[in-house]
Amino acid sequence: MNNFKDEQLNQFRVDDMGKDLTTNQGLKMTEDEFSLKAGERGPTLMEDFHFREKITHFDHERIPERVVHARGTGAHGEFQLYESMKEYTKAGFLQNPNVKTPIFIRFSTVAGFRGSADTVRDVRGFAIKFYTQEGNYDLVANNMPVFFMQDAIKFPDFIHAVKPEPRTEVPQASSAHDTFWDYIANNQESAHMVMWAMSDRAIPRSYRMMEGFGVHTFRFINEQGKATFVKFHLKPALGVHSLVWDETQKIAGKNPDFNRKDLQEAIDCGNFPEFEFGVQLLAEEDEFSLDFDILDPTKLWPEEDIPVKIIGKITLNKNVDNFFAEVEQVAFHPGHVVPGIDFTNDPLLQGRLFSYTDTQLIRLGGPNFHEIPINKPLVQFHNNQRDGYHRQTINTSNISYHRNSLANGTPKTVSESEGGYAHYQEKVSGNKIRARSDSFKDHFSQAAMFYNSMSEHEKKHIMDAFKFEVGKVKSKEVRQQVVDMFGNVNTDMANQIADSVGVNRPEGECSKYSKVSPALSQANTVKRPDTLKVGCIICEGYNSEEFNAVLNALYDAKTTPEIISSTLSPVKGSGGEEQVPKYTFTTTDPVLMDAIYVIGGPNLDDKAVTEVKRFIHETYMHYKPILVSQNISMLLDANMAAQSGVTILDGNMQINKFINDISMHRHWDRNVNIIATNK
Ligand code: HDD
């Protein structure tokens, strides 16, 4: 099936390969290495238009990075609807399951600068542009279902607090500092979101393994004008998986582009990332039926109470051709809607509806950013807006005003039945007032529900994250305030944090909240071995029969085996065939693998033994599966073999076990202390 966006972009793609070098005016040049000078050793001449053009263009190459979500990556794909949503919405792209809608997606971190590391602890942006036949629809989402504040007017304050501190511009891409936690303790509506940010969700293994959430309550409107409240969800086919904290910090140095490369490589290999697209629906008459306000963006709708209805699928199937042109210039906006999708009075959403166009004006340099190829809708646009920086269209009509008779009143507005957008006529009344509704005043019940719903290892990770982050705060007063605040969520958790960061335990016990929502635990999501990276460590003379059996099983299970050895030279097995390693012990690292298989070989020298032990040790400490051949099982530390996810290979049964272990990804019940005690 044609991807119409791809066809549109094709008109703008330029291949310079094999071409003559010209100036921007199309003039072929004889020389591009030497500026025009008065004598071989003389000064460069003003006349050198080629030099001036080249340097001027270079001087102007940078545009302002996004004020938030500066670090990210993107890909093209398509949306496939499973069943018509006609009953709830008239949105064209949600009517016919036979129509595929082209999309562009951008994933991002929030706080870090454009060149910061991928694997930092942070929220991840999850922005999707649907190029529909009714214009662009943008779902500007995150990988967490709630937000730090209830009103957009606080967004600049929060961002100032989380960004590097103004005096020193440190720390980069990290919330582990005084101003962030000072903001949190003084703005307690952030409690629920902070619980998510301290959880494993904030350190995803892959953009392909994250859930996405539209956060706000939106409105669907059907053909009859009936409204239904809706929350949007994306669920990854591969389940939700995270890194462990120690890994993230090491990866930030070993491969700061970890998540970016992961996405690009998966798409290049044809392992197209997939996300199910779902909606939670709430009838308008049930607006007040929940025990929180559906306009409050610090609240989620528990899936056990309002199930997520899966209505379609997103597949990412093409990498960008040019990062700047596509990923850097894409401009999202929650206000890019289509008929059948409307807003609610969530004060965070209302404020966002202003901010996004405004930011593009400075970032992309003027009001014509909708004409940049990646932003251009598939349908033509016609109105009386004119001129401005970088205008591309040549509007031939002499008429650029409404109402007119010279152009028969065109471009003309159309009725709703002809596809015109009409805002939902919600009845609104009230006094003008700067205030927060009483219904927005509970800040802790869902924060507690989130914690209550975690598995034991997830709870431990949350506590460890708090201990790290709050432990980095220099102000003891702020540390105390944070501990007191989170005492409202869970006493045991707050006590442990207090003990670790050297402040008093919070007063009183918090046992008010017992609600649990199992869907919040990523431990309950899909587990599959597909695409997980298995480092296969080989050495000259390895057992070919065993290696082939394991490799075939790994491929059958759709994992991604990657061969590692001392050098990149081909390695000969016992059967005479050769394997060409992808990495050496120094060009990759155990933190970059999801599992390891160590076959070794008879010629494993001392240096290789040291490296293999390092790979085993790190992989073990990060709870990842390990398979070792029987003949080198002595490289395992004592008692390690008895631990979960560690296998010594002496037959096919063990290969199957290893594959199952990879599906589990992490083996949390492993005793990681045994290494320390045995050394
Ligand atoms: Fe935002 C970018 C998501 C609240 C103001 N936001 C941005 C991006 C994502 C989100 C994914 C990156 C888009 C891209 O990849 O280009 N933002 C959210 C979510 C929010 C949210 C899910 C709460 C539910 N944002 C929010 C508020 C404001 C902004 C309250 C301001 C009042 N956001 C912006 C921005 C950005 C942005 C300054 C920076 C770059 C851009 O828009 O294009 O306008």
- Provide the β-strand percentage band: 15-25%
CATH domain class name of the largest domain: Mainly Beta
Which hetero compounds are present in the coordinates? CIS-heme D hydroxychlorin gamma-spirolactone
What number of structural domains do the residues give? 3
Morphology call: globular
The low-pLDDT segments are none
What's the CATH superfamily of the largest domain, by name?
A: Catalase core domain
Output mean pLDDT: 96
Please count the beta strands (DSSP E, at least 2 residues each): 18
Termini separation? 60 Å
Question: Architecture of the largest domain in CATH?
Answer: Beta Barrel
Task: Provide an overview of this structure.
The chain has 679 residues and is an alpha/beta fold. It has 3 domains: 304 residues, Catalase core domain (Catalase HpII,  Chain A, domain 1, Beta Barrel), CATH 2.40.180.10; 79 residues, Catalase, four-helical domain (Hemocyanin, N-terminal domain), CATH 1.20.1370.20; 152 residues, Rossmann fold. The chain is 27% helix and 16% strand. Strands 1, 2, 3, 4, 5, 6, 7, 8, 9 and 10 form a 10-stranded antiparallel β-sheet that branches. A 6-stranded parallel β-sheet has the order 15-12-11-16-17-18, sandwiched between helices. It has a two-stranded antiparallel ribbon with strand order 13-14. Strand 6 and strand 7 form a beta hairpin. The longest helix has 17 residues. The mean pLDDT is 96. The structure holds CIS-heme D hydroxychlorin gamma-spirolactone. CIS-heme D hydroxychlorin gamma-spirolactone (HDD) binds next to strand 2, strand 3, strand 4 and helix 9. The site of CIS-heme D hydroxychlorin gamma-spirolactone (HDD) has 28 residues, from strand 2, strand 3, strand 4 and helix 9.
